[in-house]
Specification:
By secondary structure, the protein is mostly beta strands. The chain contains 1 helix and 7 strands.
Length: about 120
Amino acid sequence: MPPICSAPAIWIAFIRFKSYEGMESTGKVKEIMGLNEDITGRNVLIVEDIIDSGVTAAQLRKELAKRNAKSVKMVSLLFKPEALTVGKGPEYVGFEIPRKFILGYGLDLDEQARNLPDIYVLKEQ
């Protein structure tokens, strides 16, 4: 019997890195949750919420390249091109935003405000 679908299989895996403490990047990337799947020879699409300095994105690209991915591309809902200091920006971008600290809708400040229903700019004092 022929296969139902001739398209290649799509796999979803999760990995979590962190480089922020409060409102500032530490410059060091901490792996919170590692990747358990073998990605050798696979085309990988990283889905990010936000990219600003690029520190975490660059480290993630490096880690996936070490695991012999065929290709690695990145999509980010939010991208701060003016803040990028390391690596390259994402190949696909939802919205380019200015260099402001934002939170809500999954974005947090020390695990706070993550569950707000919208994205907010933190007011400067």
